[in-house]
Amino acid sequence: ISLVAFVFLSFIRTNMDFARQKTLKDIITQSRKVEDKTAFFNQVLADVKEEVKSTDFDIKAEALLKLFFLGIKGFDIKWGAFHSMECMSQHKFGLKKVGYLTAPDTLTANEEILLLSTQQLQKDMRSRNNVETSLALNCLGTVMNPMLADFLIEEILGLLTSNCAYLRKKAALVLFKFFEASPEQLNNGFERLVDRLKDSSLGVVTATITTLLHVAQENPNFVLLAISEIYKVFTEIKSNWALIKLIKLMGELIKVEPRLKKKLVEPLFNILNTVSAKSVEYEAVCLILGQFQEYPNLYQMAKDKLRGLIESSDLNLKYLGLGAIRKYMAESPEVVMEYRQSILECLQSKDVSVRIKSLGLIKITTNQDNLEEVVNSLLVEGKAADSSELSQEIIKTIIELCCDNHYELISNFDWLFRVLIELVKMKPEKQDSILTEHIMDVTVRVSDLRDDAVVMCCNLLDLNYNDLVALSRSSVDTQGVTGGISTCLAAILWIIGEYGDKMKLAQMLRVMDWISQKQTLSASGDVQIMAIGCIFKLFLKLSQVLTMKAEISANGVDIPEEEVATRKRQVFFEGRKMVLKVLKSFAMTTELETQSRAAMYENILLAIMKVAEPETDERFQEETNALQGVAGIYQVELKPVHPDAQKLVKIPENLNLETPYEVEETELMDVTRLREITEGITLDDVKKKKREQPKPKSLKLQKKESVVSESSTEESKSSNSNIDQNVAEAFPALKKTYKVNKDFLLPDGATPFGDSNEESSTKKNQKAGLAQITAPLDDLLGR
């Protein structure tokens, strides 16, 4: 009676535990409702670790299912390998299925547990239950290693002749994993694998072809041993999926046996003429375009079929056709030119991926004759693009078409600069740096372009200045670094400031007015720096323009010279106020480089101008003359420098890069002697000595107490000499340096407190050096 009661109570307790256990469905449902998912999954993981310890395998299996779900969520579940193996060994199919489900994710990293599971895998592979054998084969495809391959090779080869076609198909597929883990088994199992090409089941034949394809990709010479059987299947099989695999397999075999091409010409003709499946047709076309160029009739048929793919209404086929051209014809531009019109039509496709794919082929079909036509059409497409990715890809393509190989296709640089300005308007987020580089490079290299480039840059600022500054600011805010269009705006400002010599007075004032806007202060650091330089250079050019003598008329009536002079003076002083205001504003920005340049330019102008004096004609003449001297700094033309120019600089003959720069520590310090001096000294002794030292006295008090006893003076000298001696002994290499430094700090005729009536030689040298530095600047500024 007691035994029966114990068993009954145990059964009741187990059922109660199972009832309290949360199922996988409960976990998934609750995970969709909770807010703190990390804490929830951590709690589930803790519960699972307790549940897998249960002796009830129903509870253990449910815990493994939840562990498998946690693995999908990114948790480490390798620790559950042993529990998976326990479920694999159960006779109940439901438990065994759970064990095999979790085994691929847990057993792969645990060689010891995997070694224990070999007997169980062998047992299940020999099982009369085909479903159990199928579970074992599924697991082997993931956890295979050399040890398992050598131990289970006979079982997998035996399954190739199983009465169940489903097992034969799975065995043929898994056999590649055996060959991959242990290549020696290829000799044992290859012949029996090839025999499956004659199998009555189409699924087994297809699986065998798939395995042979993977083997051929690794070792095509070995697969050539079965070329007769493979060729027979290639000419007889009707399955489209098997044909695709066979075409790929033939492509691998041709690489090592070119004579096979002649045998494949007729079957490929038949495939192109009779097979209606576009997938098979595409594989055949790719094989012919890649390796059958010496057969013109077959090659021409493949090109015609390829045109049909590109012009197909099916976007997938269109995409595949463009990819085939890119892969097999990129090295033959004259062949790609035959598809030029079809490629241009792909730019109108609704699918973004098709349009991006066609952009890569446009570069192949573009030459000097059709460059402007292609670029203009791309600009239209780019401005109408509804995808940022497509827009950026179009910008990249235009830059590559126009600027590759040092502007090889360009004959009209004025048109090129207009294109670059249009690209700036299209907001080149990812291509801003390379676009900026070409804008500046073209302007520096082509001198005849500079005047027109300045005009185009000014027009761009008139239309888009606030937008450009806003984009510069937003790119910095979102990315944390200068990006977006900010570098392009900086380049435009640099071009206007550097080459604006022939700008009209109204243009100069308009650009200066744009820069003086408050929005410029919120731009990126690069833009601020270039804006400061631009407005400073424009003010210098403005002063030059105002000093020129020219007859001015309004509505056909000449203006008197006195009124002209008055207007010039007003323009100059208004421009001066604007520039000084801008520089003062930039001098208070958070950008350090901007502060430095603004302060430098402001001090240069203030050194020349007398802002407090009346704005008279004499003041106008003096300041404009002085500014012309400063403007001479920017008269030197900047010329392009070749990237390899540094290599032309000869290395000095006396340059020695082999001798170490640093001196060994042992040469500077005698550690043994230093220890002897400091031996027995503690930190308390140092603090006590510091407290005993008298506090420093004021200069007046030191003068009153300058007369001291001879004994104290001699004692002090003796003490100082002892200190010097100790230092010299502890630091022998610094003995001479210490003396020289002491003489340098206290030159002849000077006292420690500077009481000498004569100036020290050091101060005299400093004043003389300062005079030499400032003299050229004084001459330049006319002071």
How are the SSEs placed, and which strands pair?
Layout: H1 2-20, H2 24-31, H3 37-51, H4 57-72, H5 81-88, H6 93-106, H7 111-116, H8 118-125, H9 130-143, H10 146-159, H11 165-181, H12 185-194, H13 202-218, H14 220-223, H15 227-236, H16 240-254, H17 260-274, H18 278-291, H19 296-310, H20 315-328, H21 333-336, H22 340-346, H23 352-365, H24 371-384, H25 388-407, H26 413-425, H27 432-445, H28 450-479, H29 486-499, H30 505-515, H31 525-547, E1 553-554, E2 557-558, H32 561-586, H33 592-608, H34 617-631, H35 665-668, H36 671-678, H37 683-692, H38 699-704, H39 710-730, H40 735-745, H41 761-781
Antiparallel strand pairs: 1-2
Helix pairs in contact: 3-4, 4-6, 5-6, 6-9, 8-9, 8-10, 9-11, 10-11, 10-12, 11-12, 11-13, 13-16, 16-18, 17-18, 17-19, 18-19, 18-20, 19-20, 20-23, 22-23, 23-25, 24-25, 26-27, 26-28, 27-29, 28-29, 28-30, 29-31, 30-31, 30-32, 31-32, 31-33, 31-34, 32-33
Give a description of the structure.
- With 783 residues, the chain is mainly α.
- Helix content is 71%, strand content 1%.
- Helix 28 (450-479) packs antiparallel against helix 29.
- The longest helix is centred in the middle third of the chain and has 30 residues, at 450-479.
